[in-house]
Structure formats: C-alpha cells, structure tokens
Amino acid sequence: MNKKINAGVAMVRVLESWDVDHIYGIPGGSFNSIMDALYHEREHINYIQVRHEEVGALAAAADAKLTGKVGVAFGSAGPGATHLINGLYDAQMDHVPVVVLLGQVAATRMNYDVFQELNENPMFADVSVYNRTVMTAESLPHVVDEAIKAAYKYSGVAVVTIPVDLGVEEIPYMEVSTAPNYKKGVIYPNVEDLKKAIPYIEEAKKPILYVGQGVKGGWEIVKAFSEHFSMPIAASVLAKGIIPDEYKAYLGSAYRVGTKPANEALAIADLILFVGSDFPFAVNVFNPEAKFIQIDIDASKFGRRHKTDVSVLGDGTASLKELIKIGKARDADDWYNANLKNKENWVNWLETFENRSDQPLRVEPIFKEINRIAEDDAIFVTDVGNVTIHATRLLKMNGIQKFTTSGWFATMGNGVPGGIAAQLSYPDRQVFTLSGDGAFAMVMQDIITQVKYKLPIINVVLSNSSFGFIEAEQEDTEQKKFGVFLQDADYGKMAEAMGAVGFTVTEYEQLEPAFEAAKKSDRPVVIDVKVKNERPLPVEEMLLETEDFDKEVVDKFIQKYEVKDMPTLRALLK
C-alpha cells in the first residue's frame, strides 16, 4: 500500500528541510488548510502570530538581512495578501531571500468572483523573482521547494499562491526537498582584472575605499587593505557594523544619512574603489571626475553609479585580499592623515553633546545610554527617518554587533518588526529597535507580539512630534511646512497597556535609570524619549567655507548647528 501524506504537511516539511524554524502571519479562511499543517508540525516550526501582515513581511525580510537565510511569511486571500506588499518590496529592494505563501479560494471556486477572491499573480509580479499558483495538491511541496531555490538564487521574493482545498488533500509520500543539494560559493576575481587596477592606485593622490555589504565578514581584510594602501574608508548605511566605528580610518557613511568626513572625502577624492555596493546616491556625493574601480559579483552593476575605469567581477573581500598581494604598500601621506584628523574632529564634536541636559532632550545623551548598556554582540534594528541619521552617526558599533534597516525601500515602520525577527533568530543576544514617533506609531500594535512571545527587546522611541526627515526636505525647498507635525502621545503608557515595560522620559536625569532597567528586563521595554525637534547637521550640504558661501550664511549655519573645532577637509589639507 502506497504511503500517503497530507499535502500541506508535506509542504511545511519542505520549509523545515531548508532550516526555516519560524513563519509569520495571520490566519484566514483561505489559509486554514496550511494553518492545520502548521499545527501538526508545531514541534518543528514556530508559527508567529503578528497583528498585521505587513509586520510579518517586514520581519521575514529582517530575518533574511540578519541571518542570510530565507525569511517566510504568509497572508490569506484578498486583504491578507495585499497587506504583505510593503515588506516584500523592502526585501526585493535590499536583495534578500524571502518566500511568501498566499492563501487563495478553493480551486473549484476560482474565477467565480467569490468572497475575497483576488487575482494575486499580477499583483505580485513586479515584486517577485518567482510567482506561481499551485495547480495540484501533488505539486504543492515541489512548488515551494522551487520558490525557496529561486529566492536564494536571485536574492529576492518568491511568491506561492495556494488554493485552500489543495492543502488538505492526501498525496503520495515522497522526498521532494532539494535542500541537501543546495550549494553556494565565492566568485573569485580574475587576477588580470585586478592588475589593471594597480596603476590607478599607484597614481592616485586622494584615494578612498567605499564598501558595501559585499565585504560582510571581511573586516580584517578591509583593515589590512586600508593600512597597506593608506586609504581611508567609507561605507554604505547597510554596511554599518561591518567596520568598527572607532577604527581611525573609517569615515562613516555618505550623503544625507551619513557623516561630514565621508561626504567631504568622497567629494574631492581622485580615486574611488567601489566594492560590493550599489549606492544609489553616488551621483550626489562622489566626485564625478574621480577615477573609479568597481568590484562586484553582479556585472550588471558596473558603471551604473559612476563612469567606471576598471571593473572586476568577483567577491569583494577576496578581491581586496588579492590586491594587497600584488600592489605595493603606500605610505601614509597628507591626504590620509587629514582624513584621520577630520574623523577625529567629527567624533569629538559629536561627543560634546553627550552630557547636555537640554529640555526637550537632544538625541546624543540617548545614544550615549544605548552605547553604554549595549552588549558586545547586540543587534540594532533602525527605523527610517531622522533616527536613521542619528543611528548611523552615534551608534558606536564594534564589528561584532549587527545592524539593519530598510535601505533602498526606506519604509517607515520596519523597526519593531525587525526587532521581532532579530530576537527570534538570535534568542541569546540583546536586541534594540530605534524608531521615531512617526514610524513607531505605524506598527506599535506589534509590541503585543513581543509580549506574547516573551521577547525582551529594548524599543527606543525618539518622539519629536514631527516627520522630521520630511520637514527638513520642505525646509530645503523653501515651501511651507505642512502635514509633517504629529500629535504627541505617551508611548510608554501605551506599552504598559500592552503588557510591556514602559518608560516616558522627559528629563536628562531619567535616562540612565530607564536604560538600566531596560538592560535588566526580561520583558519587552519601550522607552519613549521626548526629544527636541531639531534637524541633524545636514552633512549633504554644509555651509562651512567662506570661499564658497557668504560669511553671513556660514556664520548662521555654524551658529544654528553649534559647529566648533571642526574645520573642513579642504582646510585640513592646506
């Protein structure tokens, strides 16, 4: 007698074979057959009940960003499916593998315009690298296996739509998963291509290394390269944490969500070595006249962000390691030393605000507390807005800690979901979420999810009663500030009402006790800090040089942002 298995259970076991240990979603009638399968497999895969499908999709994307493994979420037919779309675009645009399962009405009722029936394939076509509707119960495990492979292969979103009646059918038992055969490897560069880069490095007077996530795990090689060629380093925001922030030659990130040292160096560099990144704001920051060496595992990216003189197809870390071998050491010169001094001045300037007791509070004292209590392997999930700028500049990460945000899609509300993902994937590590009040309010209902699953996440909310990032854009375009001011609320009390530990901080003296309690808590914590609605220093357009701007304009800028003891890079080079 042929052995049989429930089709839904067979599909869930495929997920398990690919090392999926949790899945996010909300039940719905069109997904009931798979919910039953998840019940039967509950000892092997955890169902995480979120309070909004968007949170589930954003959490799945964060899982992929933090672990490199596929994240999985689901939604029922109609509204459950449409709620997922925001998190899926986040995954697509940050190039991480996510599989999403969509409920659908029974196959026998499809195309009859029944309750909640939605033609889901066209809707998800743009966001996906794989998008199929399961046609038979027997094919359900196979289609999900193919979806996972596609998500990994293309670093994107794979969508599987499942008519509800197929998941309950009994099908012949057979091994379907191809997970044991899955392989991934390193693309090694062609040495001849690397040799073409050496003359550019030797001739450069103002070289800089710009790295992205393509050097993840390669900090020691990046450091060795920087020191061998006496080259300062800048990095993408998504690469935050790969290089210890305290490293003397690390200038930080570029453009608006960046630092003064990185922007100034990239603006006048005569050689940019662009490794493992696809930085979309290069046109706004990089010197257009600079020579450009680009290293990437995706040849379609060559020349996309800057005229490229040398392209190298290969792994970023492996390429840098080989360049050290074949290139002559370069002595530290005025360019290198001036950038180190610029970095030192920048850090010293930021630290002058750490003990300020302004009311409402400045953000620097808050980050001082975060850095103080952060464990050596802490994980930081940063939401989108001014909080991203503050986190990029003020988190003092050590190269072991992890960081993620919504990079390219830059969707507000990714902080709380990302924290859930981080704590589930790394249950023994300390997790912070950092959000503005605008972003936090979009997803704060899922503090309940943190409570339900006993996730001791430290959620920090910077409440300035404004969409501050957009307010600054309206300021720059000299338009009337409109639609950006928010009604304030007590998010600490809201957290308490949901079962978390809540603090509402309005004074400097309240900071240390709140963060000390958060560090010791075994429950989720929300620390709502009422902060001054003050624009971060706009490093993308600094008015600091009287050679370029009227003295009155420069003086006004310096006074507004309290700039002192921080000469420009050009001044340091003179």
Short description:
The protein is built from 23 helices and 19 strands. The protein is α/β, with parallel strands linked by helices and 574 residues long.
Keywords:
19 strands; EC 1.2.3.3; pyruvate; pyruvate oxidase activity; six-stranded parallel beta sheet; 574 residues; globular; alpha/beta
Structure, explained:
With 574 residues, the chain is of the alpha/beta class. It has 23 helices and 19 strands. The strands form five sheets. A six-stranded parallel beta sheet has the order 15-14-16-17-19-18, sandwiched between helices. Helix 3 (53-67) crosses helix 16, helix 10 runs antiparallel to helix 13 and helix 14 runs parallel beside helix 21 (511-520). The chain is globular. The N and C termini lie far apart (87 Å). The model has no long low-confidence stretch (mean pLDDT 96).
Number of strands: 19
Helix content bin:
25-40%
**Which of globular, elongated, flat, extended, rod-shaped describes the shape?**
globular
**Which consecutive residue ranges, at least 5 long each, have pLDDT under 50?**
none
What portion of residues belong to β-strands? 15-25%
Spatial gap, N to C terminus: 87 Å
* Structural class assignment: alpha/beta
Major sheet attributes: 6 strands, parallel
Pfam families: TPP_enzyme_C, TPP_enzyme_M, TPP_enzyme_N
Family: Belongs to the TPP enzyme family.
GO molecular function, one term: pyruvate oxidase activity
EC number: 1.2.3.3
Which SSEs are present, and which pair or pack?
Elements: E1 4-6, H1 7-17, E2 22-25, H2 32-40, E3 46-49, H3 53-67, E4 71-75, H4 79-82, H5 85-93, E5 98-104, H6 120-125, E6 128-133, H7 140-154, E7 157-163, E8 170-172, H8 191-203, E9 207-211, H9 219-229, E10 233-235, H10 260-268, E11 271-275, H11 282-285, E12 291-296, E13 310-313, H12 316-326, H13 334-351, H14 364-373, E14 379-382, H15 386-394, E15 402-405, H16 415-425, E16 431-436, H17 437-443, H18 447-452, E17 458-463, H19 468-476, H20 491-497, E18 501-505, H21 511-520, E19 525-530, H22 551-561, H23 569-573
Parallel strand pairs: 2-3, 4-5, 5-7, 6-7, 9-10, 9-11, 11-12, 12-13, 14-15, 14-16, 16-17, 17-19, 18-19
Antiparallel strand pairs: 1-8
EC number: 1.2.3.3
Enzyme class: oxidoreductase
Domain Thiamine pyrophosphate enzyme central: 194-323
